Amino acid sequence: MATLTYLTTTHFDYGAVQKVPSALRRAGISRPFIATDVGVRTAGLVQAVTGTLDKDMPVSLFDGTPGNPTEAAVLKALDQFTSDGCDGVLAIGGGSSMDLGKAVALLSGSGGPLAQYDPLQGGGKLIKSVAPLIAIPTTAGTGSEVSVGFVIIMSDGRKVTFASPHFVPRAAICDPELTFGLPKALTAATGMDAITHCIEAFLTPTINPPADGVALDGLWRGWHALPIAVENGQDRDARWQMMMCSTEGALSFIKGLGAVHAISHAAGRIERLNLHHGTLNAVLLPAVLRFNASVCGEKYKRLGQAMGLSPKADLAEAVSAMNAEIGLPSGLGDMGVEEENIPELVAYSMKDLSAATNPRGATEDGFEAIIRGSL
Ligand SMILES: [Zn+2]
C-alpha cells in the first residue's frame, strides 16, 4: 500500500518576502531566531527579510552557520535561541542555514542530545515537539524549505541525515530575487543538487506517482534553465525556474534519494576538503546513472524526455556534458578526493539513509565501482 503525503504551504514568486510577517503570525512566532550565515548577511539578504517586519519585533540574529552545519554550531545557536527567549526559527540562507535552523527547532522543543533522533536508530519516536520554523531559501538547490530532512555533521564525525514530517517548515517563502547575487559557481553547484534530487527521487523504487510527476516537471524546468541562470544571474525567468526546480526536487524526494546522495554525504564529511554537496552530486551522477541503468530502462526514457534528449542519447553523457558546460569539475579527483579515501567513502555510503532507496541494491563492490568511476 502506498502512503502519499503532501508537505507544506509555499509562497512562491518575486515579492514573496512580503509574506514573511503574515507567515510568522500564522506560525505563532513573535520572537524569531534568525538562522543564517555571514555571506547571506553581508549580501544584504537578511535585511531584505527583516525590513518587512514590524519595527518593534525583537529578533535574535545568528550568522554563525558553517558551510556544512556541525553539531557544535547547532548547540551554540540553541544557547542563543534559549537565552534570547525565542519562540520560533526564521531560517534565511542555503541548505546549511535551513538545516541548522531545523536542528535548533527540534532541540528547543524536544531536548538533546541530537544523536538520539537519528532515524536509522528509530529516533523519530522520541520527538515530542518542534519549534515552528519558516524557511526562506537564498539558493536554488537544497529544497530544504519544503523537505522532511536535515543533515548535520555530528561531534563524533558522522554525517547524519535526520528525517521526520515534524521537520517540514510551517511555511516556505520562495522569492527568486534573493538568488540574484549567487555567483556562477554556486548557481551551477546548487542547481545540479536540485536536478539530482529530481532524478534520484524519480528513480527510487518507492511507489508515489504524484511525486514522480513533480520530479519530472522539476527536472524539465531545471535542465533547461540552469545554463541560462549560470550564464546570466539576472535572468528573471531562469532564476524563477531554478527555484521551482529546487522546491519540486525536495517535494519529490519524499520518496527517498539514492547512491549519489549516499556517497555525497560520505564525501562531505571529509573535513580537510570541505566539499560542496551540489558539486559532489554533479560529479557522482554520471557513474550512478551507469550503475543503475540495468534496472531503470523505462524510467530513463522518461527522464530523457523531460531533459529534451533524443531517444538514443545517453543520460550519463548528457549530465557530464552539462557539468562541463556550466563549469563544474570533471570528477572527484579534480576536487581533491584520493585513492586512499575510497574505503572510508564506501563504508559511510553503505550506512547512509539514501543508500536504502537506490534502485539497484549497492554492495560494497558497487559503491567502490561508482566512486572509482567518478574519480
Ligand atoms: Zn542534495
Structure description:
The protein is an alpha/beta fold. Helices cover 47% and strands 10% of the residues. It has helices spanning 20-27, 38-42, 45-50, 71-83, 95-110, 184-203, 209-231, 236-252, 259-268, 277-292, 297-307, 315-325, 342-351, 364-374; strands at 9-12, 32-35, 60-62, 88-93, 133-137, 149-153, 159-163, 171-174. The chain has a six-stranded parallel β-sheet with strand order 1-8-5-4-2-3, with helices on both faces. The chain has a two-stranded antiparallel ribbon with strand order 6-7. Strand 4, helix 5 and strand 5 form a beta-alpha-beta unit. Helix 9 crosses helix 13. The protein is globular, with a radius of gyration of 19 Å. Bound molecules: zinc ion (ZN). Residues 193, 197, 261, 277, 281 line the site of zinc ion.
Q: What's a quick, concise take on this entry?
A:
The protein has 375 residues and is α/β, with parallel strands linked by helices.
Show unreliable segments: none
Rounded to the nearest angstrom, the distance between the terminal CA atoms is: 40 Å
State the major sheet: 6 strands, parallel
Structural class: alpha/beta
- Figure out the total of helices: 14
Q: Widest sheet: strand order?
A: 1-8-5-4-2-3
Oligomer: single chain
Strands, helices and their partners?
Layout: E1 9-12, H1 20-27, E2 32-35, H2 38-42, H3 45-50, E3 60-62, H4 71-83, E4 88-93, H5 95-110, E5 133-137, E6 149-153, E7 159-163, E8 171-174, H6 184-203, H7 209-231, H8 236-252, H9 259-268, H10 277-292, H11 297-307, H12 315-325, H13 342-351, H14 364-374
Parallel strand pairs: 1-8, 2-3, 2-4, 4-5, 5-8
Antiparallel strand pairs: 6-7
Helix pairs in contact: 4-5, 6-7, 6-8, 6-10, 7-8, 7-11, 9-10, 9-13, 10-12, 10-14, 13-14
